[in-house]
Amino acid sequence: MNIACVTAHPDDAEILCAGTMIKYIQKGHHVTFIIATNGEVGSPTLPNEEIAQIRYEEAKEGARIVGAELIWLGIPDEFLFNNNLAIFLKTFSCISNTIFNLLYSKLMISN
User: Fold this and answer.
1) Is 81 helix (H, G, I), strand (E, B) or coil?
2) Alpha-carbon distances, residue 93 vs 8, 28, 57, 78 (angstroms)
3) What's 67's DSSP letter?
4) Which CATH class is domain 2-79+99-109?
5) What is the pTM of this model?
6) Are 66 and 21 contacting, i.e. CB atoms less than 8 angstroms apart?
7) 30-37 and 69-75: which strand pairing?
8) Cα dihedral sign, 29-8-58-100
9) Quick count: other Cβ atoms within 10 Å of Cβ 111?
C-alpha cells in the first residue's frame, strides 16, 4: 500500500502522524510526506530564507528517519490559502499527481 501524508507546515507530519507512518513502513508500505509551506516564519530571530532552509533540512532528516519519501512544495508561510491561483495550482497539481501515482492506494491526510 502507498500512503501520502499531506500537511501544511514543516514538522506537522512528524508530530501528527510519524508513529503511525513508521508502523505502516515496518509492515512494508510506502509512505510519502507532502509538506506545503516552507516554514519561513518559524523563527523570531533568523531571516526568513535561513529558517526556510533549516526547516527544509529538518524535513528531509525527519522523512529519512521515518523512512518516508519527501515532497516539499516550498510555498511561503501564510500564503497557502490566500486565493492565489498559482499557489493553488501548484498545490493541487502536486497532490493530484501524487494521488494518480498512488492509484489504488490509501491517502492519509493529517487532521
Assistant:
1) coil
2) 15, 27, 23, 19
3) T
4) alpha beta
5) 0.80
6) yes
7) parallel
8) positive
9) 5
CA distances from 10 to 51, 91, 101 (A): 11, 15, 23
pLDDT in tens, 70-104: 999 888 887 777 667 777 777 777 777 766 565 44
Query: Which grid cell is 59?
Result: 524535513
Bridge partners, 71 (sequence order): 34
Quote the CA–CA distance of 71 and 94 in Å, as a whole number.
8
**Residue found by looking up cell 491561483 in the block:** 85
Q: Is residue 90 within 8 Å of 73, Cβ to Cβ?
A: yes
In three-state secondary structure terms, 72 is strand
CB 73 within 8 A of CB 91: yes
Q: Are 60 and 32 spatial neighbours (Cβ–Cβ below 8 Å)?
A: no
Residue with cell 533549516: 54
Mark out the alpha helices in the chain (DSSP H runs): 12-26, 48-66, 85-101
